[in-house]
Amino acid sequence: MKIAVVYNEAYPEIKNEYSVKLPKNLGFKPYFDIEQSDPIAEYENIAKILRSAGHNAYIINILDDLDKFLNDYQKNSPDVIFNFVEIYKDNAQLEMSFAGLMEMMKIPFTGASSIALGTCQNKTLAKRILKENEIPTPKFRFIKKKRSSYKFDLNFPIIVKPAFEDASVGIENDSIVKNNNDLKKRVEYILDYYLQPALIEEFIDGRELNVAVMGDKRIRALPISEIDFSRMPDHLYNIVSYQAKWDPLHESYHKTIPKCPAKLPKKIELEAKEIAMKCFKTMKCRDYARIDMRLSKDNKLYVLEVNPNPDLTEDAGFMRSAKQAGMSYRKALLKIIDYAIKRGVNSQNFNKKFAKIG
Fold first, then answer.
1. For residue 220, what are the β-bridge partners?
2. The whole model's pTM is what?
3. Do 227 and 172 contact (CB within 8 A), yes or no?
4. How many whole angstroms separate alpha carbon 342 and alpha carbon 227?
5. Position with higher pLDDT, 34 vs 48
6. Other CB atoms closer than 10 Å to residue 204's CB: what's the count?
7. CATH of residue 150
8. Is a pLDDT exceeding 60 seen at residue 214?
9. Is the peptide bond before 12 cis (omega within 30 degrees of 0)?
């Protein structure tokens, strides 16, 4: 099979802004070293793994320009796309559009469909679907515009998020509020700064679990990973904020430590996996996804988000769970591409049968 590993790094010449050594005066003891990210090398490594399995694989950066993809497709005619396009023109909501383009062109590709990507990107729509399907999620409200009062039937503390962002964008320590005055300030900050509605929901104090799910027609939940907050200082909330994910110079980056497998009572583990697989099916995910949950102090599970197409780098959460399930990085990648290849073959067979009937 000819496979194009497609990604979108609009500014590949810009180096990682945290590619310097950790300063000595951070004010806390770091847990992780700073490593310079090289996305091009990561994608080339994936292509290399695919080539080792006998595929003709290559990488292409579309550089915020769809013509680059269309011209490449016309020239090389790849059989399958390994889709890593997460953002287009600095707009996370356009992630679904690239998947939609491939669907219209009838090109098999890895990961979620355009509908699943768009649904999960819209946090409020996703939560409404979860609630309608009796999947436990924190109580929430959706605020589209400023108002004189922001009093709701929600219990404080409340966490305030941008409604259409991804990768913890807009989630900071100040996102958690404990009174109506701070709620008003944070909601209006989201409305003004991110120019989009705000999602507010009850903050669930407890353990944070990440449940990876893999498969297409048949799915399985992988060993559960947990974010260990035991080293988090008192002045920071136990959340995976934007800084905790992306800023190695911030204390929360070094105090949110992934542990896999999570040590859970068997009953809780099985319940979390069942909920995760129900989320996967309900949100029409496919191939691979990560469902983020909270386990409250009274042992109740709440789904925070469903994340189709999570990070597939070797040290990321999804692959950490895959490794615990006995899969090497190579094996997990080949499974994911195989799902897309089979969809393409099945689609071609269907079209041939339909043509004969016609």
1. 214
2. 0.91
3. no
4. 35
5. 48
6. 22
7. 3.30.1490.20
8. yes
9. no
